[in-house]
Amino acid sequence: xxxxxxxxxxxxxxxxxxxxxxxxxxxxxxxxxxxxxxxxxxxxxxxxxxxxxxxxxxxxxxxxxxxxxxxxxxxxxxxxxxxxxxxxxxxxxxxxxxxxxxxxxxxxxxxxxxxxxxxxxxxx
Length: 124
Prior knowledge:
Residues 1-61 form the RNA-binding S4 domain. GO terms for molecular function: DNA binding; ribosomal large subunit binding; single-stranded RNA binding. By secondary structure, this protein is α+β, with helices and mostly antiparallel strands. It has a domain at 2-83: Structural Genomics Hypothetical 15.5 Kd Protein In mrcA-pckA Intergenic Region, Chain A. The chain has helices spanning 2-7, 14-22, 68-73, 103-113, and strands spanning 26-28, 31-32, 44-49, 52-58, 75-77. The chain has a 5-stranded antiparallel β-sheet with strand order 2-1-3-4-5. The longest helix is centred in the C-terminal third of the chain and has 11 residues, at 103-113. The radius of gyration is 20 Å and the shape is elongated. It starts with a helix and ends in an 11-residue tail after the last helix.
């Protein structure tokens, strides 16, 4: 499974493909699979990678990494379209060299994110 996902260029590296299988982000015909799972033509592969769901149907088996035109022939992509960039949540970044946030800044960040605060149960 991990070799096929990597070979058809769904994931950039084989180690990332293996990690995705182990983490349960890869399903074949609705079942979570291990990296060594055998793939057959006609299988539906669901992959969650980089915040995006990919749904592909296996049409051909390849054992080594192939070029993009050949990889496109090995699968039928039924994935939903990616969300537009405008809808992606912007992650707040600190200016370079600004150092760690102060306690006051950290509390403000926690309030914005909705974590922490007075509603949070005590630890311990």
